[in-house]
Each structure stands twice: as structure tokens, then as C-alpha cells.
Amino acid sequence: MLLELFQWLGEDIRAFQVFNYLSLRALLAALTAFAIGFAAGPAVIRYLKAMKVGQAVRHNGPKTHLVKDGTPTMGGALILLAIGLSTLLWMDLSNRFVWVVLFVTLGFGWIGWADDYRKVVHHDPNGMSAKEKFAWQSLVGIVASVYLAFAIAAPGDIHVLDMIVGWVEQGFPMQMPPHADLIIPFFKHFAYPLGIFGFIALTFVVIVGTSNAVNLTDGLDGLAILPCTLVGSALGIFAYVVGRVDYAHYLLFPYIPGTGELVVVCAALAGAGLAFLWYNAYPAQVFMGDVGALALGGALGTVAVITRQELTLAIMGGIFVVETLSVIIQTTYFRFSGGKRVFLMAPIHHHFELKGWKETQVVTRFWIITFVLVLIGLSTLKIR
Q: What is the pTM of this model?
């Protein structure tokens, strides 16, 4: 919104032309999101307390968590507010990639809100059933996956919806361009061609999988939000590279017009994440809940797909991957071993708590691991 205003003013006042620079708008988006989140935080927390929107802690979880019962949850709405307003203020409103990210973020946020609402109203830690939650996630994921397949394949001046209609009418024939191939990190000239259906399937798995992975990770004060901020910031760097023909050519990445604008939403995510961490750090004044965790995971997965960094996301978000695998391993082994367990408790952060680590130790060490993994992911920019 502000970009259009400043561009109009820039026709007569040259100083306003500085807002055409993507780097400046990204910085302002981060600062705006942080300001919104930080300023609105106390009011949101008071409102959640007044509405008695308190977290119901699992009684089969670590006993140290029982003191958290009643802590305001659904604070992720604060993150979505900051990201949404900041992005709309500083983005190019004609950029379809940013709109897709916002669609997934808000769509998954709505699913998380419905889940959290059931937990709060019924004081039930389980909330929405897994099947119902996955069904709604699948709906959002499929819509985004199909749209992105054509948005990435199509030139910027072609209407995506017209392409999808034509694709269906012609019997689903379509060749995906080379820049839609799956990039293998650390390899210079090796990418795996996916095809239209392979691209849609992979996109769906990345978006829905990342959303649920972040949700599983969100179990300790501040554990999920800083990794989301770090990974989102790194993906913003990849978006900037892939969206510039000179940088993409020099670093041997596919050039995808329009992806550079994703820097704005990634910066807004980082700013909103840091603001929320102020109130979510131990001892947390508010939890993000599913409304925040599902939305942030969906946003990260969508940006990774658009920038063709699905495998790099798996590296940088290694904590999310390990948390998810720990749950899969635990439940599978429990089922087929007649009740035996691999971990003391899953997700794995609870395992370390029961091993004697303090909550702050688990969180800080997971932050450190994420920081190192993000550096490894960023090294793929040059080590190819």
C-alpha cells in the first residue's frame, strides 16, 4: 500500500524513489512488524487473560509444565497481525507469490485458531481431531500447490487461473521448465526434474509437513519462534538471490521473476517473531498456540517451494525435522513393540527434559543448533 503511495509521490519528489529499493522495504517491514507486535503484545495478553484463554497442559507430560496451566495461548494471532499488516504496507500488491504466502499463512492460522478454540472452550489439550485438522490443511495445501505449479512455470504476464483451466480442459498435459526442478544442495549442475504432478506432490508435502513440524516443536517457552525467525530470515536471502537475474546467474540458481518480493514477507516474519519472543521467552507470558505454529510452518514451507529450496529448508530447519521424526519413531515403535518406547517422551525436547536438562537449557541448545544449521544452509549459496 505504502509502496504505491511513495511511487506516486516519487514522480514529483525524487526523495520518495528510495522506497523502490527492495532492501529498504524489507528493513522497514521488519521494523514495522516488530513495532506492531511489541506495542500490541501487552494489550493482547491482557485480552486473552480476560477471556480466560488459557493453555490446558497435558497431565501425562513433564510435571514441571503443570505450573504453565492457564497461561494465555492463541498468542500466534499477534504474530499473524504483525506479519499481515507489515507485509501489506510494504509489499508490491501485484506480486502473486507474496499473496500465495499470505493465503497459506492465514489459512493455516485459521485452522490453528479453530483447534486452539476447542482446546480453550472444552479445556481439552487434544483439540481438533488429527483427521479433521489434516483435512483442512490438505485443502489449503492442495490449492496452494496447484497454483504455485503454474505460477512458477508461467511468465509473469500470464494469468495463472487461465492456465489451470486450459490444463484441465486439455487433459492435464504440461512440461515444467528447468527452473522448477528440485535443487540438490551443494551440487552445481544437478537438479531433479519433477514434472507437474511431482511438483504438486512435493509442494504439498513441504507446506503441510513443515506446518505440522513447527507445531510439534512448539512445546517449550521460545523453542519454536526463534528457529522460525532464523530460518525465515535465511529464506529471505535465498528469495533475494533467486529474484535477481544477476545474482541468480552468478551463483548458479534458477532465476524466477517476482520471488525477490518475498524478502518483504520474510522480513516481516522475522520482525514479528522477535517481538513475540519478547513475551514468549521463559517464563512465557503467552503461548503462540496452533494458530501461530501452523501458520509459521506453512509460511516457511511455501517460501522454500517458491525459491526452490525445499531440501535446504530441511537442513536449516533440522530441529523441526528431528522433532517430527522423534514422534514418528516413538509412535511406530510403541505400536509394533507392544508398548515399548525409544524416547522417554516425544517430541524429543521432552525426552531431554526428563533426562534432567532444564527447560532453558533445551531451548538455548536447540537455538544454537538451528543457528549452525542455518549457516550451513546459507553456505549452499556459494558451495556448489
A: 0.93
